[in-house]
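Intended use. Records like the one below are meant for learning the mapping from a protein sequence to its folded structure. Do not use them to infer anything beyond what is encoded.
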Amino acid sequence: MTAAWPTPVEEIALIGHSMGGLVARSACHHADRGGANWVEQSRHVFGLGTPHLGAPLERGVNAVAWSLRQVPETRGFAPVLNARSVGIKDLRFGSLLEDDWTDVDIDGFLTGRAAEVPFLPHISYYFVGATVTRNRNHPVGWMAGDLLVQFSSASGQNRRRRLPFDIDNGHHIGGLNHFDLLSHPDVYAQLERWLADPTRSAPRSPAIVEHTEATPL
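Structure written out for the chain above:
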């Protein structure tokens, strides 16, 4: 991966928006297991609006498709919804491994699982999550998140699961939607601050850095 680069590669930072963050985490896991050289040079993995704990839209579509299968009059519509890719279905619970679907009816009612994939000790992992309200604790922001991913999922924290993000490696932006995270200047500024900080270290415990913008609901 890095041998053909025109200058020596000192470190690699992976940045993934939405599902891309899951792909980055999965790639590092499999590369580490397979002994790939590039993962040894990787130092940072960023997830922007990444559904680490899954996305309600995928769970909703799964539930609707399953319901259609139960009634003869609507059964023919279920295959249309179930034609979603396996990658999209990974968003049900934030699955990273193929084994998560072993011996599982992938189109069953809210079936699936997400095995815990440890963060690699030499890589710092980060999340940036948004809510459409300035205050992430506002009922609308809590429920809707960035309109596609809830903040609890982007930050890897809910009552059942908690990903081990470093205490300073989380950032909330208020007043934005899911796709705003692709080009918003605050996202770039935050990534720059993290990358310029020489004290970035191994994960410790989760926390959230607050940032609000735009008009509150």
